[in-house]
Design goal:
By secondary structure, chain A is mainly β. Chain A is about 10% helix and about 65% strand. Chain B is mostly beta strands. Classes of the chains: A mainly beta, B mainly beta.
Chain lengths: ~230, ~150
């Protein structure tokens, strides 16, 4: 956690230092490249014996200060219950856009805000044991297949060019408007990509490493001498 | 000073994130059946036995009261109850009636520490030999907060 906070501060400081004394002369809506990356958090959680496992890949394309963003992930949750066992597995995607507020940076580092639409397809299963004076100890398995959910997200964060084609950054997400369909007999405890379903809103975060595949040379803003 | 209060406030807000919450379980595995007279008001009824189809022993014997609590089979979507009472005009001396209640089982996992909570919803009946107008469903959910699920005019 300390490492994460330190790297966040370094990224923020680096991005801030880059935006001085330059004028934006790069207004072109032609993309300079495709950035493809992955989220590090799922691997950290797996290393910490979390009941969650999975992966998430992220991609974005720049159109001047606007970015088209696409995320895809797979997630599974397996945990013991007080009276049984619960599993949930599925895939999810998010699509949306970001707006970069760091216009004058020569490397197109980003401080951004954005919006996403998320969707998830999943199946879950609960094996539970109930005790009843008449029927005794009853163990049953309830399955919820073909479940789906959708939600919206407000995003914000940073992207910083670390070295040549390598970028790092983090994204904070406020997820809201959860709408679950199907699975009427087993209400999902967790929706892949969204998280716990106790509330209709949730917070999330990603710490991402990107590789940028350039498609054209990135125009540099002109340095203004004062 | 202001910053100190701000940090204390943030710490208090953040503490809520680690609060596991309460396990509120309002589910129940019994149908509350009330006996009513011809005027629709609660009235005492007498049964020799009330048993569940497939279960060897009667769940209730020598019933004399205005209501009974009937356990449902949690692993099935219906449970059939057989009511017996003395009948002078019957060759066997016993009148036997049955009701099959149907319901939908729904599992909710609020928290792994709370366990999975099994709810029985959408209560209805598919068989009723007491007579067409004798059985009425008054509440379709089996919850602790619900005192009556159905009325029966025997």
């Amino acid at each position: 956690m300390r490492l994460f906070v330190l790297s966040c501060c370094l990224l923020a400081g680096f991005a801030q230092a880059q935006k001085k004394n330059v004028r934006d002369t790069t207004r072109s809506y032609l993309p300079t490249g495709i950035r493809v990356g992955m989220d590090v958090f799922p691997y950290v959680r797996q290393a910490l014996n979390s009941p969650y496992s999975g992966y998430e890949v992220n991609a974005d394309v720049d159109f001047y200060r606007y970015y088209f963003a696409l995320d895809y992930g797979q997630s599974s949750f397996k945990d013991s219950l007080e009276n049984g066992y619960y599993t949930n597995t599925g895939t999810y995607w998010r699509v949306g856009g970001d707006v970069n507020f760091l216009l004058k940076d020569p490397d197109r580092n980003m401080i951004f805000l954005g919006f996403r639409v998320g969707s998830s397809q999943f199946s879950n299963q609960a094996t539970i044991t109930t005790e009843n004076t008449t029927f005794g100890r009853v163990t049953q398995t309830i399955q919820g297949n073909d479940g789906s959910a959708s939600w919206r997200e407000l995003t914000g964060g940073l992207r910083v060019k670390v070295w040549k084609w390598i970028w790092m950054g983090y994204t904070f997400r406020y997820k809201f408007g959860l709408n679950i369909k199907g699975n009427e007999n087993l209400q999902p405890y967790d929706v892949p990509g969204f998280g716990r379903t106790v509330r209709n809103d949730a917070w999330g975060a990603n710490y991402q490493i990107f590789f940028k595949i350039p498609v054209r040379k990135q125009p540099k803003p002109v340095v203004v001498k004062k | 000073m202001t910053m100190r209060f701000l940090w204390i406030g943030l710490a208090l807000l953040g503490a809520g994130c680690f609060n596991p919450g309460d396990c509120v379980k309002n589910n129940k595995t019994n149908i509350e059946l009330e006996f009513v007279g011809s005027n629709g008001r609660a009235a005492a009824a007498q049964f020799s036995t009330i048993s569940i189809s497939g279960v060897a022993q009667p769940i209730l014997s020598n019933v004399n009261g205005t209501s009974v609590s009937l356990p449902v089979n949690p692993a099935a979507s219906s449970t059939t109850y057989v009511f017996t009472r003395p009948a002078l005009n019957s060759p066997t001396g016993v009148r036997r009636d049955s009701i099959t209640f149907t319901y939908r089982n729904q599992v909710l996992v609020l928290n792994p520490d709370c366990g999975a909570i099994l709810y029985h919803r959408d209560l209805d009946f598919s068989v009723n030999t007491f007579g067409s107008e004798s059985l009425r469903i008054t509440n379709r959910q089996l919850l602790k907060s619900v005192a009556r699920n159905a009325t029966l005019r025997p």
